[in-house]
Model the fold of this input.
Amino acid sequence: MSLLEVRDLTKHFPIKTGILKRQTGTVYAVDGISFSVDRGETLGLVGESGCGKSTAGRSILRLIAATGGEVSFDGVDVMRASRSEMQKLRRDMQIIFQDPYASLNPRMRVRDIVGESLKIHRVGTPAERRRHVFELLETVGLNAEHAERYPHEFSGGQRQRIGIARALALNPKLIICDEPVSALDVSIRAQVINLLEDLQDEFDLTYVFIAHDLSVVKHISDRVAVMYLGKIVEISDSGVLYDRPQHPYTEALLSAVPIPDPHTERARRRIILEGDVPSPAAPPSGCVFHPRCPRARPICAEAMPRLVGTGGDAGARHEVACYFPARFADGRRSVADEPFADARPAPRPGA
Done:
């Protein structure tokens, strides 16, 4: 059973100009994405900077208000939950922020940062909360004596461990990991990733792991969703996606990941995409990737294809939003004439 279900989630930011702040445009940051996450699973959400990954994660938690769509967490409609209902949901839905320097209040001691949520939700007595904070710090690889220090007294990796301890304080079911290792040194990243995996096993956690480093995502994720310009263009089990990518954008991303074998690295073909990423304030018609796609055809500019199964193994759950993927498992080379191709242009507010 799915713990988290996201259906047609959108987040559009208005562009306002002039003294009167009139809306003159819209940024389509997240433009109708759907996916589900099973209990105990890690879903990797990948894509280049500006594709809407972090916005999607914050919209799921209602840290920012979504424009539309549905989010169901453990059977509860997050988008329609009242203020009191959301406060209860906060105990089960937490986030680890990207920047360990900006996400910790420099005026608060570590014991107050980690224990703040316990105080807000009135968990235990002051002595019990203090003891729980010490246990959390030791769980993430710090010492109880660190509780009396301020954030500026720690390294980046240690700060991120504090952020992880804060996310664990209420024993949540779901944690949104918003690029938790991108701001860390390479030598520290593996330690934090291994820590997250150990914590997942120990506390039965479910992760949505947001990142742009495909090698990190491959290591930690059970399934991977690839985003481009606010849309999910491919989603599959991790091993299947890395071995047999179907979408041309996914192929290009994977070709940029270095392989630790000089002979294999020299022999493989690097895919260089032409042009720049379009602005999310003026996305192209049809498939958002077609202006840079080497396999684009006229129909690609007419309508955005929806995610369809590739016909592979039933357990793989491999879906791709492309009229001309690399190859379907059943031999098909195009979905342009198939009945499940979405022949309608992507709707725009006010269009």
